[in-house]
Amino acid sequence: MSKLKVKKSQIIACVLLVIAAIICGCVGMYGMSSRSSEKGGKILSNMRLQAILDTAGNGAVDAYVTAAKAEATAKVREEGGGMTEIREATAKAEEEALALAEKEGIGSVDLSEIDTLPLEDSLDVLAAAQKEYFDEEAAAQAVYIEEHADEVVSDGTDEAADESLDASAEGAADASAEDSAGDIAAEGDDMGSDMEMAEETVDLSGFEATPEMLALQEKVDEAYDNLCVEIKKVFPALTDDIMTALKPTITSTVAQQGDTFESQYDRAMEMSGMNPGISGTIMRQGKTLATTAVGLLIFALAVLFYTPLVKKLGIPRLVIGLFYIILCLMAFIYNLSLPGQISNTLVRLGMNGVLVLAMLPGIQCGISLNLGLPIGIIGGILGGLLCIEFGLSGWIGFLFAIAVGLAISAVTGCLYGMLLNRLKGSEMSVTTYVGYSIVSLMCIAWLVLPFKSKVMKWPLGNGLRTTIGLQTSYRHLLNDFLSFKIFGVTIPTGLLLFFALCCFLVWLFMRSKTGIAMSAAGANPRFAAATGINVDKMRIIGTMLSTMLGAVGIIVYAQSFGFIQLYQAPRQMGFLAASAILLGGATTSRARISHVIIGTFLFQGVLTLGMPVANAVVPQSTISEVFRIIISQGIILYALTKSGGDSRG
After folding, report:
1. Quick one: which of 39, 38, 45, 49 has its CA closest to 110?
2. Of 5, 215, 259, 635, which residue is 20 to 30 A from 417 by alpha carbon distance?
3. Would you say 398 and 461 are in contact if contact means Cβ atoms under 8 Å apart?
4. Which residues of 223-249 are buried (b: 16+ CB within 10 A; e: fewer)?
5. Kind plus residue range of the DSSP H or E element containing 36
6. Which has the minimum average pLDDT: 40-54, 92-106, 596-610?
7. Are 244 and 251 in contact (CB under 8 A)?
């Protein structure tokens, strides 16, 4: 303990956390084990049965009220009354009927006063039939998705853009390209964050029920009819029409696709309002308590080893690492697919890794964070567009896009490096302005460049689409290459191997004579110049390499994302890459390959898990986007404060 220099307060806090973890773990394990017991099954069964009877009881009350109103209407008509009298009579009849129903207990039932065994048996049969149906439906949809894997859509894709354009064309078919330019650029601006966050899905609108599903649906209908017979014994006022109307509510209460103990418990609790007691509450929260115990133990270790962890990892990596672990635990609590989320994290690691790697040469050569990365990204996008224009696909198209992107970005990177040499000491500001300027300039270029491919052009007017699909060229080429699954986690082997290859090549370059000279020029320009190193040349080489890696990075990103996005979409990608490498432990003056890998994994891992967890905690919220902005901008701010905001002149 003395070697670790642990303070007494740390030991006390650690002990308290361990005690809390033991308590939560014991209670949680008891609650989870109780779920499979006879008592646990009875509690859940009673809650579900009460919810269904309450639903049916409300239907019985409605039937009772409807009959009273019909009787009142017929009586008024016999007496020759008009509509005013009918409305008054029916309102009075409804009020009296509701009061009488409450007094006589119509619509309410106490489970202890009836024989629930026939109801429970019918309910179990219906639940089993519905589970069979949902399993078959999920399997059939999985087959459909696999067969239609190429027909993917994404938030803000060109299908949506086409619909928007067609709608505009109906009202103004003669609109000029100049009039639409502002709208396209504005739409591209909205796509900036979507380029990072949008997910691909297969449209299931064409999915049709299989014969097996139809057969199982008949089985569900038969089980529901048998349940209706038992419910009518409790509420004789219920008719077949009422039970048919109540069918969606009752069946959704019994079972839903992807049901867990928690979801069934919460649904029954909401529908019935029944108090399950302390035993039921412990069973419901058992998984949460057990997971919380794991989190408390991890937090206890972090408190105990806080000093060496901060010294080795730094505060940002420690905080984000703990936050990522918390997100994993919350994903488990909310029954999100953790293997699926880890798979997405690995994909994001590979697809963003080269873009983050592009920051390393810029930092090492002395220009600090290359926030002008969009210059290289534009070169890579042009390479991808030319690939589509010439009709190339597969590996040939992918390599052609990289070759063209490297050629364009090498030229622009050289000019960019020369500009930065003339503005030493203001690189951070200049790179930001240059990046924004090139993106804005290309918004005009995308409207006037003479591309002819129908895949890229708007169906009406001039200019390229906001989002261009890569289905016919090199979509998911690296993702699918040698990919495999292990414990439910899909490993995108090709994508990770390509990222590793880029890291290895940069590592070799940094250990070459030129790479060492470049690092020396970035670390101490005056000393490097005194030893005969051409500092300006080394800065240009580093800037060119950073820009060229940006071109390769966007091509890798696009093939994994499945689309190329134009206009304002690339504007923020330099900031995201900078955030990732700084999170990995780099500074504004020094960076290593390990910083790239660690930072990309943590940054993308938090973003990947943040969205589904945030949506589970607060449905239909924008918390995940807020997290993204806070993390990306906060990490940059932290790095600048640590470096004192100084720039190496």
Report:
1. 49
2. 635
3. no
4. bbeebbebbbebbebbeeebbeebbeb
5. none
6. 92-106
7. no
- Measured at the CA of 430, the angle between CA 426 and CA 639, to 5 degrees, comes to 65
Residue 501 pLDDT greater than 90, yes or no: yes
606, burial (CB in 10 Å: exposed 0-12, middle 13-18, buried 19+): buried
Short-list 519, 504, 238, 548, CA closest to 363: 519
The three-state secondary structure class of 567 is: coil
Residues pairing with 201 in the sheet: 153
Give 500: exposed, middle or buried? Use CB within 10 Å, 0-12, 13-18, 19+.
middle
100-109, 256-265, 353-362: least confident range:
100-109
Residue with tokens 């998911």: 476
SS3 632: helix
Per residue, the 3-state secondary structure of 392-448, as one string, reads CCHHHHHHHHHHHHHHHHHHHHHHHHHHHHCCCCCHHHHHHHHHHHHHHHHHHHHHH
pLDDT band for 641, please (50, 70, 90 cuts).
low
Structure tokens at 409: 């970005």
SS (H, E, C) 182-202: HHHHHHHHHHHHHHHHCCEEE
**Six-digit token string for 524:** 């101490």
Strands 489-491 and 484-486: antiparallel
Question: What string of DSSP letters covers 510-559?
Answer: HTSHHHHHHHHHHH-HHHHHHTT--HHHHHHHHHHHHHHHHHHHHHHHHH
**pLDDT mean over 77-98:** 80
> Which residues 6+ apart lie within 8 Å of 528 measured at CB?
517, 520, 521, 535, 538
**Distance separating alpha carbons of residues 537 and 246, to the nearest angstrom:** 77
**Token code pair at residue 250:** 């009752």
| 125 close to 118: Cβ distance less than 8 angstroms | no
* Mean pLDDT to the nearest integer, 152-168: 42
Tell me the H-state helices in 285-426.
286-304, 306-313, 315-333, 338-357, 359-365, 374-389, 394-421
Q: Which residues contact 121 (CB under 8 A, 6 or more apart)?
A: none
Match 């790697």 to its residue by tokens.
357
The SS3 assignment for 257 reads: coil
Which one-letter DSSP state was computed for residue 153?
Answer: E
Contacts of 418 (CB under 8 A, 6+ apart): 540
How is residue 497 written in tokens?
A: 């191997």
Distance of CA 296 to the CA centre of its chain: 26
Give the closest residue to 649 by CA, choosing from 544, 506, 529: 529
pLDDT at 269: 78
Give me the phi and psi of 491, to 5 degrees please: -100, 110
